[in-house]
Each structure stands twice: as structure tokens, then as C-alpha cells.
Amino acid sequence: MPGKLCGTNYPTSICFIVVNEFCERFSYYGMKAVLTLYFLSYLHWDNDLSTAVYHAFSGLCYFTPILGAIIADSWLGKFKTIIYLSIVYVIGHVVKSVGAIPTVGDTNMHIALSMIGLILIAFGTGGIKPCVAAFGGDQFDEEHVSERQKFFSVFYMSINAGSLLSTIITPILRSDVQCFGADCYALAFGVPAALMVVALVVFIGGSGMYKKTPPQGNVLLEVCNCIGFAIKNRWRNSKYDPKRRHWLDWAEEKYSKRLIQEIKMVLRVLVLYIPLPMFWALFDQQGSRWTLQATRMNLAFGSAFSIEPDQMQMLNALMILLFIPIFDLIIYPLVGCCKINVTPLRKMAVGMIFAALAFGAATLVEINVVKTVVTPAPSERALLQVLNVAERDITVRLHNKPLVPGPIRPLQDPDMYLSLPLHDSMKELTFQINSGETDNFDCVQTLNETTANSLVVFSEGAGLGCTLVQDYIQKSGDGKPRLRFLNTLTYGVKVAVDKVEFEMAPGITMSQNETVDRHEYSSVQICPVTSGTCSSLDLGLLDFGASYTYVIYEEGGAPVVSRMEDVEANNVHVAWQIPQYVLMTAGEVMFSITGLEFSYSQSPTTMKSVLQAGWLLTVAFGNVIVLIVAEGAGLEQWKEFLLFAGLLLSVCVIFSIMAAFYTYVDPEDLSSAYLEDPKLCDTEEEKKKRPSDNLQMDRKGKSTKL
């Protein structure tokens, strides 16, 4: 039997529901926080595909609540729906975690498991989304209104607490714990899976205390049936009927006048929803495009502390908790003191402007971030830099024109890559290299289009030799530095950096380009491959986003290194993202929270679930917009940010015009009208015309059989 918390009117069962929601939101946001980098670094997808799949998943999560609401209201009830779909949710998390284990199959297997897992998670989280909060509200008696309101506040706090903690913890599990020799995505997905198991166990644990309401019939389905009947009936009757001024009036043969009036009220609000997806198209990019932007920024706070790029998302959850009381207790009252009529729709329009300004700030940051990025060579061109490891100055010419003005000194760090025309997918080029009047030779190499290369010139006996190595110029997906070693010694060596070991044969040998943690490496061991004494190398600071080549040579009988920076380190600090997060969160408080309040206040009691479904669909369609732009536009990132900001401002203008023509209503007036005005009530003759088994709404707004 349902019990009460000691000395209060709060049901004991709400403790289980709040804990369940905290664990479920930790599970969802924790998995989602590292999802983009998982696509980028683990599955090796490009930025656009990673963004597209991320938003396709997010969109599906907001389409499936309609399915969950139909199942709960029509067949299973809220309790069983939460149980069954939570099991689907857990299975999805487990499949997703298994797909992140490198030893389980090949890349195709990882992709298949990941997609199956994400689909199951989307059906699980979306399916229970409309049920949990409503199920919590069902636990209260009708007279305990204030307690129910406080419960929803605690419920909302548990959502943000779960989001905040998960976006801090799971990126740490991903990066700071090494498994299978790399970042541990299996653990980063596994812990959210475990939290979802805890959520399910806790919810089942309170089973004996819950007040379980049986299915009452789905209002959403009834609304759709009524609209469908009205359209079909109007189509069949071409004659004009002066008594039916609205197209929905053609449903009167089968549905009550009250239901039709309520649907009219709902449709007026749903029309206002049409421009809203554009806000969510910007808002949800915090987990995709903004995270990718952070990977190309300096993440260090001092010498001892740095954050992960996917941890920046926690700012939104943190600032939501701060901004809600600030807006409610300070900003809105101050605006009211200025005698400005701040209606809900005006608040939402201002929220759109704040979101557009956030993307304007993101554009400015992106313009400076890309300055450290090496632009890949287009088709029929290749990038080239010259590494001189010979013991003399050299000059390099192509088609009798110098590649670099002046001589190239030994171990000189190339300033930049040169873009060479190939006029084909690949071309054999002849470089004229000389180090004096008589020491000249031709270096013939084949370059492939769109590649980046290093032409290594070295001493060979009394003359010179050359070789071509391909470079990796993309910044790492998680912002970590890359490095490689060029061995010029006469014996093979191995170097251990962080958890990566580089091994090179004797002579001019280049190692693979590997990713390591950002760190000051002042004492790195270098050892001969066969036998001999190990030495210590000072590599210095390997900074975020940089790509280094270390040339190993001998000086004073011991191996030493000379450092060359192939790709510049990230020089824009991640703190510059804070303004865009502040603006976006301010926009969310004014848009999202106000929008929910507006929807609730403008809908009849029996139609609140219909408007909730419509609201969730705006989020889903917003993610669809990002999916289309990410895959179809093909714009530079800063231009894409600017495009989204411009689109939202345009939509804001349209929304403001629509809002100016909207008349606010009190749904309670509808009930009063039905009680006082007999013209709005159904006559006994009209009731008899309808099928006896038709599901209708009585005057109290409850489902009943006529």
C-alpha cells in the first residue's frame, strides 16, 4: 500500500521515482557526452558523418515518446511501460558498450553493434520519457497540489544533477582510464549502462508502494481520429454549410462539440510550434559541433589541470541550475518594474535571439580556431614540406624554381606546407637538390593528390639522398597531440612515450604517427633495439592539437632530438567557449521553460499530453534540420555556424509576427462556457447519433464511455 514520508504528505514511492530519474538521466547524458568523439576517434568517421549520426539519434529519441505515450495510455499503463521499455533501454546500453570493445569483431561489427544499441536506447529513453514524470504526479492525492508542484521541482533538479555529474565523469572514464591500449570507450559506455540497471532495479524496488492507474485511453489517438474524420467528412460533402464555419465542425456527427473546441485550441498553439524546431537545431549542437570545436582548442587550465573537450557540455546543466532562480527572482521582476509587458511568447522570441547570438559567438571563436588547422590539399594537388637532416645547407627547386626562398638549414623547422599542382590523381615530380656548385642531384618522387608529404633530404656518403614520407595533418579527434620520430642513427632504436612505444630500424626511418596525452615529457627513454645503454630525451611540452616530428641524431656520442612542428598547437583557449554556453543557456531558460509553461497554460486539461507530444516533436525536427545541413551543405564550420544564426533570426521574426496575432486564452473559460451556454453543449439528439462505443470526454475532462 502507498505510504507517506515521515510527517509529510509526500508518498514514499516518489523517492524511488526521483532516484530512478537521476540514474536514467546520468545514463543517457553520460553516454551521449562521449558519443561524438566515439564516432570520430574510435570509428574514424569524419566530422560531418559524426554530427549527422549524432543528431539522427537525438531526433529518434524525441520521435519515440509518442509511441511510449500510446503504449502507456492505450494498453500497458505507465508502470508496465516504464518497466518493459527500461529493459529495452538496458539491452541497448549493453550492446553499445560491447560494440566499443576492440577485440569484439572488426570495424563493421563495431558499427553494427553501435547502431543497434543506439536504436534500442532511443526507443527506451524516448518511450519512458512521457511516462515517468506523469507517473510521479499520479502518486499524489488530488488535494496535495503544492506537494505535487514541489515534486516536479525536485524531479527537474534530479534531471539536471544527473546530466551535470555524467558530463563530468564519463569523459574522465574515457580519457584517463586506458583499456586495450587506448581511450576506454567501453568503460565510458559501460558505467552509464550500469546506472541504467540501477535505475531499473530501484524503480522495481518501489513496486509495492506505487499508486498504479490503469490505461484510460489515448487522447492523442482520439484527437488524430477526430481530425481525420473531419477532413474525410468535409471532402465527401462539397456543399457549403453556414453552421460549420470551421473545418473541424464537420466532425460533429461523431465527436462531441467540447472535444472539437478543445482541438481547435490545441491547433492554434501547434501552429505556433511550426518555427520552433530551428531553436533546437542550434541548441543540440552543444554535443556535436561545439564539442568538435573544443577538440581544436587549448584545454589546459594552468600547468597541472586540463579538461576533456566533451566535458564542456556540463556548463549547460550547471548554468541551468544557476540561471533559473536568477531569472525568476531577479531578471523578470526587474523587467516588470520597468512596466514592460513580458508575455510568454515574447520571452521565447528573446530566447531565440540569445541562441542566435550564441552561434554568433561560436562563429568568432571558430574563425580563430581554424588558424591552427592545416587545410587539406584539394583534388589534383598535394602538400609538401622539406625536412633537411643532412649536415649542410641545401636548396630545393622544382621546374627550375626554388620551393623555399633561400637555403634550407640542417634541422630547420618548415614554416608551412607548400601546395603543389599535379594536374592528375598522381604525378612523378623531379626535385633539383643542391648543396654547392658541384653537389647536385635530381630527386624523383611520385605524389598522390590530396595527400600531405615530407621530402626528407639526408647525407648519403659524400653526397645527398632523399625519400618521401606521407604525413598525417588532421588534428586528433580528442584534441591530444601527435608525434613521430625520424631515426638517422646507424642502429635501430625504440622510444617509449606515455603508453606508446616507437621502434625504428637503422638509417633514415620514420615511425608511425601516434597520439599521446598532453604532457611535459622531460625524461623519455631511448634504447638501442639490440643491446646497449639507454639514454634520456627531453621532448618538452607536447601540446593540444599539435603534430610533431622528432629527428633523432647523434651529438657527443649520445642520441639527441630536434623538434619540428608539422601542425601548430591549439592556441585559442577553451574558456572562449564560455560566452556561447552562457548565451545558449540563457536562451534555453527563456525559450524552453517558458514554452513548456505556455503550452500547459494554453491547453485544456484533457489535451496537455497532446501539446507535450507536439513540443517533443519540435526537438526531433530540430535535429533533422542539423542532419540535413551537416550532410548536405558542405560549408566551412564558421560559415555553417553563421548560417544557423541567420536562419534562427529569420525564424524569430516570423515567430514574433505569429505571436502578435495570437490571443491568450484561459482553458477554464471553456469549462465555464460548457456549463453556462447550452449552445456549446451536446443535445440528447446529437448524442444518440454517435456510436455508443465511441470514447468521449465528459465535462470533468475524464475519458468515459457513452
From TrEMBL:
The chain crosses the membrane at residues 26-45, 51-71, 83-105, 111-132, 153-173, 185-206, 265-283, 314-335, 347-365, 610-629, 641-665. It holds the Pfam family PTR2. Residues 682-706 are annotated as: Disordered. Its main location: membrane. GO terms for cellular component: apical plasma membrane. One of its GO terms (biological process) is protein transport. It comes from the Eukaryota. Keywords: Membrane, Peptide transport, Protein transport, Symport, Transmembrane, Transmembrane helix, Transport. The keyword Protein transport applies. One of its GO terms (molecular function) is symporter activity. It is a multi-pass membrane protein. It is found in: Apical cell membrane; Membrane. Belongs to the major facilitator superfamily. Proton-dependent oligopeptide transporter (POT/PTR) (TC 2.A.17) family. Interacts (via extracellular domain region) with trypsin. PANTHER family: OLIGOPEPTIDE TRANSPORTER-RELATED. This is Solute carrier family 15 member 2-like. It comes from Knipowitschia caucasica (Caucasian dwarf goby).
